[in-house]
Backbone:
């Protein structure tokens, strides 16, 4: 396993522990909290993917697109599963049992997709470079769902995170 892959796995682990932990414990939701992490992950992921895309076959790119579509669906589902509450400080989110199950399934699908990709294409640079990007994709979808729900419920975002 290359140093690049190890670093991506460590970043992914840190992000997931931080994000999932905050959601399950509950936290105020600011604009920064909704969009900073997904934006940074998407940017880092695109940077990582940029060197791998020119080496990718159409089938590998299709697999990546399918992976992203599935992860977007789970991100939207997680966003719908969070309990949103208005507080004097703004929007509060708290995960439910469904949120936890959806996170576990999301992680399982991403891991299974990585193994399937490695089995089909043993030296697939796209699969190795896509981990951070795909986490950014699923978090961006979840954030979009939370933002949309907060707007529909007329709950203002928190001005700062607690």
Residues:
């Amino acid at each position: 396993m290359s140093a690049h892959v190890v670093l991506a796995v460590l970043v992914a682990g840190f992000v997931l522990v931080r994000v999932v932990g905050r959601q399950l414990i509950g936290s105020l939701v600011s604009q920064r909290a909704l969009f900073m992490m997904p934006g940074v992950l998407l940017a880092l992921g695109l940077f990582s993917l940029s060197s791998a895309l020119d080496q990718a076959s159409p089938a590998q790119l299709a697999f990546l697109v399918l992976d992203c579509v599935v992860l977007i669906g789970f991100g939207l589902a997680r966003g719908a599963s969070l309990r949103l509450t208005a507080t004097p400080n703004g929007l509060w989110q708290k995960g439910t049992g469904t949120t936890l199950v959806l996170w576990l399934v999301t992680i399982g699908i991403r891991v299974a997709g990585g193994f399937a990709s490695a089995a089909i294409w043993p030296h697939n640079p796209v699969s190795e470079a896509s981990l951070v990007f795909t986490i950014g994709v699923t978090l961006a979808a979840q954030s979009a769902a939370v933002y949309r729900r907060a707007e529909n419920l007329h709950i203002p975002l928190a001005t700062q995170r607690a």
